[in-house]
Amino acid sequence: xxxxxxxxxxxxxxxxxxxxxxxxxxxxxxxxxxxxxxxxxxxxxxxxxxxxxxxxxxxxxxxxxxxxxxxxxxxxxxxxxxxxxxxxxxxxxxxxxxxxxxxxxxxxxxxxxxxxxxxxxxxxxxxxxxxxxxxxxxxxxxxxxxxxxxxxxxxxxxxxxxxxxxxxxxxxxxxxxxxxxxxxxxxxxxxxxxxxxxxxxxxxxxxxxxxxxxxxxxxxxxxxxxxxxxxxxxxxxxxxxxxxxxxxxxxxxxxxxxxxxxxxxxxxxxxxxxxxxxxxxxxxxxxxxxxxxxxxxxxxxxxxxxxxxxxxxxxxxxxxxxxxxxxxxxxxxxxxxxxxxxxxxxxxxxxxxxxx
Length: 356
Ligand SMILES: NC(=O)c1ccc[n+]([C@@H]2O[C@H](COP(=O)([O-])OP(=O)(O)OC[C@H]3O[C@@H](n4cnc5c(N)ncnc54)[C@H](OP(=O)(O)O)[C@@H]3O)[C@@H](O)[C@H]2O)c1
Known about the structure:
Elements lengths: L8 E9 L13 E9 L10 E9 L2 H5 L20 E11 L9 E8 L3 E4 L26 H13 L7 E4 L5 H12 L3 E6 L2 H9 L4 E4 L6 H8 L4 E6 L3 H8 L2 E9 L20 H5 L3 E4 L9 H14 L6 E5 L4 H7 L8 E5 L5
Parallel strand pairs: 7-8, 7-10, 8-9, 10-11, 11-12, 13-14
Antiparallel strand pairs: 1-2, 3-4, 3-6, 3-14, 4-5
Bound molecules: NADP nicotinamide-adenine-dinucleotide phosphate.
NADP nicotinamide-adenine-dinucleotide phosphate binds next to helix 1, helix 2 and helix 3.
């Protein structure tokens, strides 16, 4: 694009929090869409702000965890009533009153409003001006090079460091984080097993390089599945689901195993007193297991190293990404709800109806 568009006022829609959702999957009682106008007249744009049209939004499970109104574990600021929902996203600058940005720039942001257009401050546009070139599909900027890829990279390169030949197990393996974590563990020479919710996703995991995988919904028990698929025990577990799977894994850990807690999606829709307790933590004592949680947002100083490494892997075809793309920001509620079932394969994204 490059040139400034002529329209002076734009109608846009945005999602906002109408009521907190302490339990269950958020519904249209909690999340609502509203319309607003943005004037593109020069005097209407705040100094040092840019107006962006939003192209893609990343839909991530943590968004649900910050809609409860109570911090019950993640220590991230909760959305307030009436606040616009934000997520990782990519937009394109259509007006700029900030010297570092020009019309046409592609701007990723970790706090992009779930909207069609927005006036934002440059501090929101942390990773400036991506340059979608040949070899890197646009959508990869919100999956392999976004939250999912970075969460996986942090888990395997910064928090844990599974050695070649070690037995790695990953839950929610066919999701955004799991898909990347499995491929990174294979690049490290590990033996990698995943769990997921459908037979179709089991096949996908094998296609992208997992040594084997099982459908936890079709397993007689998680314990039985882990006995079958991890006969030599587990040295490294990347936990994306928590609850009963975490408990089962503790029955299969090897001496000095490392459990990295990325997230606990099986527990997000329950108030904390209703969540599953883990009854066999004593295994951690006997097996001298280390269990460690992390938040990638506290570790973003390595984002540059991560990007360089992952871009190389993408170009070499060593890391691939699968996406589910919902159309139009009106699909936000549906796409968020879909994370709490086994219906998606890969990273969940929304593509707005704006033309690139
Ligand atoms: N620590 C961090 O900084 C960080 C950053 C990003 C993400 N995370 C966490 O990483 C985890 C994965 O995130 P993601 O973005 O990659 O999501 P995702 O795996 O793409 O999507 C969620 C998947 O979780 C599985 N799932 C949903 N409900 C479940 C349940 N009750 N029991 C077992 N599995 C269930 C479903 O797949 P299947 O049922 O088919 O397996 C679903 O597709 C989440 O816990 C998220 O909060 C943490």
